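ok here's Electron transfer flavoprotein subunit alpha/FixB family protein, seq below lol
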Amino acid sequence: MANALVFIDNPGASLKKSSLELLTLARQLGETAVAVNGELNDDAAATLGAYGVTAVYQPSSNDLGDYLVGPKAAYLAAAVAASGATRVLLENSPEGKEIAGRLGIKLSAGVITDVVGVEADGTAHKSVLAGSYNTSAKATTPVAVLTVKANLIEPQPADTATTPEVAKVEVPADATAAAARISSREAKPASGRPDLSEARIVVAGGRGVDGDFGPLEELADVLGAAVGASRAATDAGWIGHDAQVGQTGVTVSPQLYISAGISGAIQQKAGMQTSKVIVAINKDAESPVFEIADFGIVGDLFKVLPQATAEIKKR
Ligand code: FAD
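and the structure came out like this:
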């Protein structure tokens, strides 16, 4: 019987950093099982063992990938029953939260979102009001469902590796009967840049870029960085919404966050304030972004960024 069950959707060729973070946190709750949706190759299976996972569950049909969240919640409910876990951990993504809500209803379980840490007794620490406060919460129900914010926990393999048992879980037939299914997917043109939520360096732009992300992209390319944005920039249509960093966007925690033409509103800070080093470029010396910056440059981003790119290219 496991104490914690981690949901990993589409594990891919190698597990995402966010999945490793969930596995690291789950171990603090005791024996950990994983419910996988999608193909699990040998490398990913070995990683689960390295993280101390004792049991891996897969849907019997192996066919949930094209469905939206409903069948995934039904599958997870069945995996909870099979594993005996009392804590279920998912990503704090919009989809993770929706699955968590549906699972909570199915299991009459308490749901705690925006989790940033958890104690062995199940007390969860959560971030509220755009990261301004941390609070603690503990579900009083037998099973609790937790969605965990990304990039706040350092992935740590277990001291002793395991060989997880693999078992199939029967997904109730009615779970997929009337469920919406994805009919086609459109691949985004590959940028060659790292995934925003997992990048070690992020170059982010706001309203100050005035529609031109070119200088940011050039700097990102010489640094091997991802490009992020404030909501002002994504709302203006200058860059896709998937680049939005902040309370209602992606949470990042890179080694280096370069903020250009962003004022540093509380909702933007919520998604990047745990970055190890923050460099802010803003032409307004009074901008609140300088309150959280480790290094501040008062200047025009269209002059500062090309200089930085040229200087780095020389090295
Ligand atoms: P502004 O506040 O307009 O700042 C632009 C900055 O650029 C200014 O400081 C200016 O001095 C500087 N600038 C202008 N030209 C240049 C130049 N040439 N060189 C250098 N600097 C220049 N925001 C997010 O970012 N992420 C979120 O997830 C998010 N979620 C939200 C959720 C809710 C419920 C709400 C209400 C708001 C949310 N917002 C979010 C919006 C947030 O409140 C701010 O409005 C937004 O972050 C401002 O974006 P900005 O800093 O790019 O623009």
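fwiw The two ends are 55 Å apart (CA to CA). kinda neat tbh
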